[in-house]
Amino acid sequence: MSIKTKNLFFALVDFLTFYFSLFLALLIRHNINFNLEIFKIHLFPFFIIFIVWFLIFYIFDLYDFKKISFFKEYSQNYLSALFISLFLTILIFYLVPLFKISPKTLLLIFIVIFVPLNLEIRNLLLEKISSKSFKTIILIGETKEINEIENYLNSHKSLGFKKIIKHKGLGELIEDDFDYLVISNTIFKNTEMPSGLINKFLEGKYIFSSSVFIENFLNKISLENLTYEWFSENVLNKDELYEIFKRIIDITLAFFSLIFSLPLWPFIILGIKISSPGPIFFKDLRVGKGERVFILYKFRTMHTADYKNPEKENVFGVKEGDKRIFLFGKILRRLHLDELPQVFNVIKGDISIVGPRPDSKPYYDFLKNKICFYRLRTLIKPGITGWAQTNEKTGDFLEEAKERLEYDLYYFKNRNLLLDFLIILRTLKIIFTLWGK
């Protein structure tokens, strides 16, 4: 069973338990007066509520099988998602009177039924799915990609690979039984496939090259063995309809973000002025599509004196706990409110809502000479948030930049409106949980 199928099972469980809980709650609330008409009256309003709950649950990774089995994180995410979902439900029913019902008692009964029932069924499903998970995976090769896959599997036990075997070459495979086989790109391309391995293919075993496995499971494109041909096949093919719709969505979201955030602007401006003398906005030279340099606008979060040598500071970025950031600036950065002025960049067309984050000019000039293919990162328009920003990255400064590029390349290949929407949801989760820098 694929990871996507497992994720869909959890969504289906939530949908069924949601409406079953609603049915029981109505039955208890109305007792002998309950009839099908009462259920129909509540059907559509609670469908809207379910969509809201589904999105919140999705934001908090409750449909990500790779993360569900981490009990502590899962419990925290479930409680957070439940609290926010309840809060939004109350807002919808009582502050935004879209429907003709105001189910106070019903809502309480519904929660009492739904929460324990949903948790129990989710736990049973997790136990059932995990018991049928893949047992054995064999890794062939001694490359960086194979080592990365091994580390990933060891730190993500929830994927269900109970046994990880590693061989230097196909000659060592012999009669090993396996569910998954991952072969390094070098061996996969340059070695004749043994007949025994072809038989495994015919038996329905999963056999991947290391780069394909990384793309499917780690959701990024490995830089190892990457060629310029890959870019011509996966990036340069333009979907004009997608670009048109994306631009419309960008402008719409930018205007709405500006309108809804405007009440905060006077307080932010006042906070900056009280905390540190100097300009309200920080203007930074960034590299956009086609290496075009533009000015990016942000609320200032550092003392003015610390911007005197931006070329030096911007190369290695601003780390958490940086003493140059004043107290109110830390709050703005933590809540990502310092990025609000970027809506003007979106409206101007410098950036999109979703895309690879635009590098500062000195940062870009440094990295393009250190990382192969880095210049091709500017083939598409950058964004306020991106796939790389919503995925974990490890390593030192240079390694993190390489991994960020790998995530960006995955976005280049798979970009569409659905993925853009997913990235926006993940970004909202980061903001909700205050995980930003």
How would you summarize the topology of this molecule?
Layout: H1 3-30, H2 36-59, H3 65-68, H4 71-95, H5 104-131, E1 136-140, H6 144-155, E2 163-167, E3 180-183, H7 185-190, H8 195-202, E4 206-209, H9 210-218, H10 228-234, H11 240-261, H12 265-275, E5 281-287, E6 293-299, H13 310-316, H14 327-334, H15 342-348, E7 352-354, H16 361-367, E8 383-385, H17 397-414, H18 417-432
Parallel strand pairs: 1-2, 1-3, 3-4, 7-8
Antiparallel strand pairs: 5-6
Question: Would you write up a description of this structure?
Answer:
The protein has 437 residues and is an alpha/beta fold. The protein folds into 3 domains: 3-131, no CATH class; 136-218, Rossmann fold (3-Layer(aba) Sandwich), CATH 3.40.50; 240-432, no CATH class. The chain is 57% helix and 9% strand. It has a 4-stranded parallel sheet with strand order 2-1-3-4. Strands 5-6 form a two-stranded antiparallel sheet. Strands 7-8 form a two-stranded parallel sheet. Helix 1 (3-30) runs antiparallel to helix 5 (104-131), helix 12 packs antiparallel against helix 14 (327-334) and helix 13 crosses helix 16 (361-367). The two termini are 37 Å apart. The relative contact order is 0.08.
